[in-house]
């Protein structure tokens, strides 16, 4: 489609959702981001991301010139901001663990989309799946939302859910983000994605999935 938007992905730590999603060659060919920003310290993850994305991988960690451990959230935000500006990027898909700060959030309002492994507004912040399991909630899931200046408080775009009794491991929950990614690419970034491709993502998951909210601009 002529109005397809450009996007960058930001990820941290094991980057498991990004790696698993793009380990499917069809996804890599059709939905490859302009750049991948990784801010973790794991050499094994860097190698896998490099194998997938090559020169489109950008690593930002303590070896980077602009890295400042005393203001890590700010310096990460400033670095991401520079990438979006320098490459004329429309959207950021966020799978990272740093808090994005005011300057970036304000300039790219409704352009920064976070994928959070909980049914917001419940269980904000880190270790969200653990929080939900400890609370013994009957349903667990994911939320994609626009990033604002709060922590996991932005406008909800889409959610997926499963019964907690079906939970076996974290991947049960995290893999439910794959159809969410494709729906956002289709409905917000205007990628040409067939409905059957979305349905395949749903049917390929091990668990029963509920889509509780559809994408809205």
Note the main sheet: 8 strands, mixed
Number of continuous helical runs: 9
Low-pLDDT runs: none
CATH architecture of the largest domain: 3-Layer(aba) Sandwich
Shape: globular
What is the assembly state of the chains in this entry? single chain
What's the number of domains?
2
Report the order of strands and helices.
Answer: EHHEHEHEHEHEEHHHE
Fold and architecture overview:
- The protein is an alpha/beta fold and 217 residues long.
- The protein has 9 helices and 8 strands.
- Helix 5 links the parallel strand 4 (91-95) and strand 5.
- Helix 8 (177-187) runs antiparallel to helix 9.
- The chain is globular.
- The mean pLDDT is 91.
What descriptive keywords fit this protein?
8 strands, alpha/beta, 2 domains, Rossmann fold, globular, 217 residues
How would you summarize the topology of this molecule?
Elements: E1 7-11, H1 16-22, H2 25-30, E2 35-38, H3 43-53, E3 57-59, H4 72-86, E4 91-95, H5 102-107, E5 112-116, H6 128-135, E6 139-146, E7 156-163, H7 170-174, H8 177-187, H9 195-204, E8 210-213
Parallel strand pairs: 1-2, 1-4, 2-3, 4-5
Antiparallel strand pairs: 5-6, 6-7, 7-8
């Amino acid at each position: 489609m002529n109005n397809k938007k450009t996007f960058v992905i930001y990820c941290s730590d094991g980057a498991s959702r990004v790696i698993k999603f793009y380990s499917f060659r069809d996804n890599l060919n059709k939905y490859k981001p302009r750049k991948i920003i990784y801010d973790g310290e794991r050499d094994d993850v860097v190698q896998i991301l490099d194998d997938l994305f090559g020169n489109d991988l950008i690593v930002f960690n303590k070896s980077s010139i602009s890295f400042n451990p005393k203001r890590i959230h700010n310096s990460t935000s400033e670095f991401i901001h520079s990438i979006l500006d320098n490459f004329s990027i429309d959207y950021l898909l966020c799978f990272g663990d740093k808090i994005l700060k005011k300057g970036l959030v304000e300039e790219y309002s409704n352009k920064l989309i976070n994928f959070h492994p909980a049914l917001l507004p419940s269980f904000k912040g880190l270790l969200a799946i653990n929080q939900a399991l400890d609370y013994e909630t009957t349903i667990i899931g994911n939320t994609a939302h626009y990033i604002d200046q709060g922590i996991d408080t932005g406008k909800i775009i889409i959610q997926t859910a499963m019964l907690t009794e079906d939970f076996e491991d974290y991947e049960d929950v995290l893999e439910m983000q794959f159809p969410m990614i494709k729906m956002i690419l289709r409905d917000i970034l205007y990628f040409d994605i067939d409905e059957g491709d979305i349905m395949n993502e749903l049917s390929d998951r091990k668990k029963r999935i509920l889509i509780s909210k559809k994408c809205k601009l």
